[in-house]
Structures are given as structure tokens and as C-alpha cells.
């Protein structure tokens, strides 16, 4: 069993796997598509390289380069917000205070 905090965020981001993402997405009412996975995998790679979750603006830039749609697409994919849904599903710790772009 993967340990999460009271809001459903992973306590240890290194415990993340795709099964966790699927379960977290289901809990958020999201059916993961290729674009969701594009965002999630980018976030995981960023975390591996920088040891911190990416700010939403980096994810928007990545989406724009990959699909031609950035900010609006990010919020279509995660309608309750980057921190609330994308960070949780991608296995990031809950950010304390953060601009969502």
C-alpha cells in the first residue's frame, strides 16, 4: 500500500508508479488519455532531474511544444487545477504555496 497524506498526495514521491496514477485519477474522476500521460511523464522526468515538482508554467510550455495547446489544455485535462489533480496524480508531494500559472 502506497502511503498518502490526508489529501491523497504521496508522502514519498519515489513510491509512485503508473498504478498509483490510475487510482489517483479515478479518485479525481479522470480517465487518463495520452495527453494526461504526456503531462504526468514530463512531471516525473522533471522531478527526477530537478528533485522538485515542476511549476505549472513548465508543464504548459511542454504541452504547447508537444501538442500546440498549453495553458487551456492543461486546465481541460485537470479541471480542478494543476496542484489539486496533476500534482497528486503524478505523485508529487503537496506544494505548500504555489502559483498554478
From TrEMBL:
Q: What is its main location?
A: cytoplasm
Q: Which InterPro entries match?
A: DsrC-like_C, DsrC-like_dom_sf, DsrC-like_N, DsrC/TusE
Q: Name one GO biological process term.
A: tRNA wobble position uridine thiolation
User: Any transmembrane segments, and where?
Assistant: none
Entry's Gene Ontology cellular component terms: cytoplasm
Q: What class of enzyme is it?
A: transferase
Pfam family for this entry, one: DsrC
Give the EC number: 2.8.1.-
Name of the protein this chain belongs to: DsrC-like protein
Record organism: Magnetospirillum gryphiswaldense (strain DSM 6361 / JCM 21280 / NBRC 15271 / MSR-1)
Amino acid at each position: 500500500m502506497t502511503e498518502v497524506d490526508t489529501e491523497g498526495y504521496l508522502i514519498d514521491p519515489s513510491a509512485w508508479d503508473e498504478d498509483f496514477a490510475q487510482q489517483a485519477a479515478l479518485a479525481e474522476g479522470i480517465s487518463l488519455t495520452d495527453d494526461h500521460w504526456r503531462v504526468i511523464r514530463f512531471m516525473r522526468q522533471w522531478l527526477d532531474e530537478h528533485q522538485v515538482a515542476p511549476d505549472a508554467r513548465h508543464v504548459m510550455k511542454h504541452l504547447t511544444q508537444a501538442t500546440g495547446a498549453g495553458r487551456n489544455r492543461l486546465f481541460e485535462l485537470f479541471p480542478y487545477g494543476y496542484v489539486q489533480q496533476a500534482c497528486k496524480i503524478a505523485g508529487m508531494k503537496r506544494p505548500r504555496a504555489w502559483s498554478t500559472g
